[in-house]
Write a structure and sequence with these properties.
This protein has 12 helices and 15 strands. By secondary structure, the chain is of the alpha/beta class. It folds into 2 domains: about 5-120 and about 310-325, 2-Layer Sandwich (ornithine cyclodeaminase, domain 1), CATH 3.30.1780.10; about 130-310, 3-Layer(aba) Sandwich (Rossmann fold). Strand 6 (about 95-105) and strand 7 form a beta hairpin. An 8-stranded parallel sheet has the order 10-9-8-11-12-15-13-14. Strands 1, 2, 3, 4, 5, 6 and 7 form a 7-stranded mixed sheet that branches.
């Protein structure tokens, strides 16, 4: 497909423009888009092929290729997103990537969103807010964040509109990164404490979000209290694990964004493989959102396993494109 310089400029949406749209948006504005992503996936209203994955060892990193479309929609989207975890050591962001939007009716490319991983980060964080809307305990006494990276920041920022609690305990391996995280997130109105002892997260927090690329458990069941909720979003590739299988065994409510993906390479993968969790006991998030019968009980230990699904990418692209269209119409 040949394009003139002007056509190319119109087709490419730079990160700066995407950043401005996201900065001006509220979590509440984006939640319905991501809710629809989960509902469409679970109700078979979306076509989502298996995730393509590239894994690198030296330096450590992974690339996800996710793609799909919603039936009776206008677009299909192909997303490439990478995470190279040593990049911050050399002054580079750990996330990168782009999203390609094509016309579902004729296959022509509509837009190239040069988001450099921003939209993947945002749609993942908004998914965390969706989970909080449906699974947070009635009274959150303290929020626990496992990790100090991009997602650890965004998850907390997007919880602000959903959970009134502002008391936060964050775990990390590096004291320097913990202090930087504390300084950054205090500016958002949170009261932060830090720890390098992950056990303190389990003992002191009843709403926990795990955000690391760990390959062995960080959190264990000792001290886990009834009524605790955990959103596990770090284990999105085979080999990653943040929760011990005994935590999975102890949970009374287990939910996956995609049962197929989570059983294959999510947080619950090892528990299923070890025979500690029957796949039939796992519920899917889209179905839970639309369920009129589900109600989280006060003593439930709930876990929501987020591996990321292509419908989220489709929906966050639609959010950006609709914002651009609305701005043009208003201008």
């Amino acid at each position: 497909m040949r394009m003139s310089g002007t056509q190319e400029e119109k087709m490419i949406i730079p990160k700066s423009k995407i950043q401005q749209i996201i900065s001006d948006a509220t979590t509440s504005e984006m939640i319905p888009y991501i809710e629809k992503a989960f509902i469409a996936y679970s109700s078979q209203e979306a076509v989502v092929p298996p995730v393509g994955t590239l894994t690198f060892q030296q330096p450590p990193g992974d690339v996800h290729i996710k793609y799909g479309y919603l039936k009776k929609d206008d677009l299909y989207v192909i997303k490439i997103a990478s995470g190279f975890y040593d990049n911050p050591k050399i002054g580079l962001p750990s996330s990168n990537g782009c999203m390609l939007a094509f016309n579902q009716k004729n296959g022509l490319m509509e837009k190239i969103l040069m988001d450099e991983g921003l939209l993947t980060d945002v749609r993942t964080a908004v998914a965390g807010a969706v989970v909080a809307k449906y699974f947070a305990p009635e009274k959150v006494t303290k929020i626990g964040i496992v990790g100090t990276g991009i997602q650890a920041r965004l998850q907390l920022q997007h919880l602000k509109e959903i959970i009134p609690c502002k008391d936060v305990l964050v775990w990390g391996r590096s004291e320097a990164k913990l202090q930087k995280y504390k300084a950054d997130m205090t500016a958002f109105g949170f009261h932060l404490e830090t720890t390098t002892d992950s056990q303190k997260i389990i003992e002191n927090c009843n709403y926990i979000v795990t955000t690391t690329p760990a390959k062995s458990p960080i959190l264990h069941a000792d001290g886990l209290k009834n009524g605790t909720h955990i959103t596990a979003m770090g284990a999105d590739t085979l080999g990653k694990q943040e929760l011990s299988t005994d935590i999975i065994s102890k949970a009374t409510v287990i939910v996956a964004d995609s049962i197929k993906q989570c059983v294959d390479h999510g947080e619950i993968h090892k528990a299923v493989r070890a025979g500690l969790l029957n796949e039939s006991k796992v519920m899917e998030l889209g179905n839970m959102i639309t369920s009129v019968n589900f109600q989280r009980k006060p003593d439930d230990i709930s876990i929501v396993d987020l591996t990321g699904i292509a419908t989220q990418d489709i929906q966050i692209v639609k959010f950006v494109l609709e914002k651009i269209s609305s701005a043009k119409a208003a201008g």
